[in-house]
Each structure stands twice: as C-alpha cells, then as structure tokens.
Specification:
The chain is mostly helical and about 150 residues long. It has five helices and no strands. The mean pLDDT is about 90.
C-alpha cells in the first residue's frame, strides 16, 4: 500500500482477522473435544477425525484445506482493496449461513459478533478505497499502480 493510512488500516484489520480465526478455532474445539465415536460417525465427522482426530485444522465446509492460494494479491492498490472488500462480503455470507444452520445460542452469539466485525471491515476497506482513489486522482490520471507507474 502506497499510503501510510492504508498500511495502518491493513495492519489493524489483518490483526483482527487472526483473532477471528482463533475464535472460530476455539468454537470448533469446544464443539468437538468430547465427541464419542458414534457421534463422530453420525455427524459425518469421521473422515476429518481420521486425519486430524479432534484437532483444529483449517478446512472449508466442503473439506478443502486452507491454502495461501485462496488469498489474492496483485500489488495494485485498487485491485487489492477491491479484493479485500469482496473477501469481507464472502465472510459475512459464510456467517449468515452458519446462523441459518446453527441452533446453539453460544455459537450464534460469537458468530453474530464476527459477522458484525466483517461489516465494519467492509466499511473500512471502502474508506480506504475511496482514499486511494482520491490520492491517485490528485494527478488527474487514470487509477494506476503507484508502485510501478510513476
């Protein structure tokens, strides 16, 4: 990010997102730590259990493991902030879907909190995108990658 304000924004949100990962991991641990073998099989948790026991291992609901390949970065300010906006909306939709399926009030409270934070992050990235466009527009040029196009 070419501007200090955007670097701070990304650092703040990135740090908070790591906290979200910890919270979700804690929920998964609390929900799975005392499962019986029968509950593991009945819930369809057996394939996961074979590889990870009840350890928290980041996978999508489909079973695809987390990979850095899911993260997008181009080094272009506008493209990267737009990707960040999309990622926040995808996270919000995931939380919406969890809330549709979950009947656990303790889980739902945490998920609602995380969902609200994704909305705030979306707003902050929107502010960052606006700032970047304003700064890039100061020279009255088409939005460009200031790291390379001087």
């Amino acid at each position: 990010m070419p501007y200090p304000e955007l670097k701070g924004l990304l650092t703040d949100i990135g740090t908070e997102e790591l906290g979200h990962l910890e919270m979700v991991g804690t929920i998964v641990h609390q929900l799975t730590r005392n499962l019986t073998e029968e509950q593991i099989r009945t819930a369809g948790f057996d394939a996961y259990f074979v590889d990870h026991t009840a350890g928290v291992y980041p996978v999508a609901a489909s079973g695809a493991p987390w990979s850095a390949a899911t993260m997008q970065s181009t080094g272009d300010t506008i493209a990267d902030l737009t990707e960040d906006l999309a990622a926040e909306q995808k996270a919000r939709v995931t939380y919406d879907n969890i809330l549709r399926l979950s009947d656990d009030p303790d889980v739902n409270d945490v998920i609602r909190f995380l969902r609200a934070r994704e909305i705030v992050h979306f707003q902050r990235f929107g502010e960052g995108l606006r700032l970047a466009k304003d700064r890039l527009g100061e020279k009255n040029v088409y939005f460009m990658n200031p790291s390379f196009d001087k």
